[in-house]
Amino acid sequence: MNLERMLEALRTYDGPACRLMEVCGTHTASIVKNGIPSLLPDGIQLVSGPGCPVCVTVTSYIDRLVELCLEDHTTVAAFGDLLRVRGSKMSLAEAKSIGGHVQMVYSPMEMLDAAKKDKGQRFVFAAVGFETTMPVYAVLMKEALQRNLSNVRLLTSLKTMPEVIRWLCRNNEKTKGRTPITGFIAPGHVCAVTGLSEYRKIAEETGLPFIVSGFEGKELLAAIYGLVRERGRGGVWNFYPEVVREEGNPKAEEAVDEFFCTADAAWRGMGIIPHSGKLLRPEYAFFDAGSSGLTKDQVADGCRCPEVLMGRIRPTECPLFGKVCTPSSPHGSCMVSQEGSCYNFYIGR
What we know:
Layout: H1 3-11, E1 18-22, H2 25-33, E2 44-48, H3 59-69, E3 74-78, H4 92-97, E4 102-104, H5 110-117, E5 122-129, H6 134-146, E6 152-159, H7 161-170, E7 183-186, H8 188-194, H9 197-206, E8 209-212, H10 217-229, E9 235-238, H11 250-259, E10 260-267, E11 271-280, H12 305-309, H13 333-336, H14 341-347
Parallel strand pairs: 1-2, 1-7, 3-4, 3-5, 5-6, 7-8, 8-9
Antiparallel strand pairs: 6-11, 10-11
Helix pairs in contact: 1-10, 2-14, 6-11, 7-9
């Protein structure tokens, strides 16, 4: 179906209410950038899921990073978005302003050169992310071993998608009279690594449709149209075959499995979800900067990020949204990251 006919079919849809969740933060950003919500009728609602790694990171993890950067001879390296996420007392950016050693990087590999130049300094990378970034962290450690860099560490907050999607499906009750989630736009980049088998299992378990999508506006509209068409029918459809294969990327998964093992993980708003994360294997524990046990979370008064991440409310329903919580002064993690739902709703208004 061409774009015009697809748009017309969506605009004139008058069937049962559809509530579709895009799991990936990059999908959220692209949906807003392309103005897709404005093209849909009231009967088709999009909600964002927990697919922004910065947004789902709990405060005790940030607190540990802050502790590390304030220690002597220790530098914390992190991606830019993570610097502004507050822990229970402060963010990494605030810690830097009082003398903490914090380095913003665009790639984890930048840390290796710094570690080589200053072997008296310990460099800790804030390793947050999903299946897409885990192979990069595996390469980071492999390179550190090859270069004999004993001053490289990771503090991990690594999460995997299938179990959190299962959690969302188990808790897919009506909230304030809303329709439960009726379908998922599956995360394209994650599926490129993991393949489709786990999503086929979830579709079979739940009877819900999953469509793997690319990131262009037309691709996302096609995924939305597909989910509306397949409403009530469990299954997985790959609309991104040029990137996503059934078996995923075995080499990337092998690299991850060499260094990491499956573990329980703490998600903002959802607590500890069994088997939904990764920790360093015991034989590589010397790389770990204290990742285990970082499960406590503390949300700012009035902040409703946890409900946003679960798709239970839209960002505009948070009393802080656009008032005291803005991209320039974020109170919640969903307003910090450029993949966050609140951030994207704010800039897309």
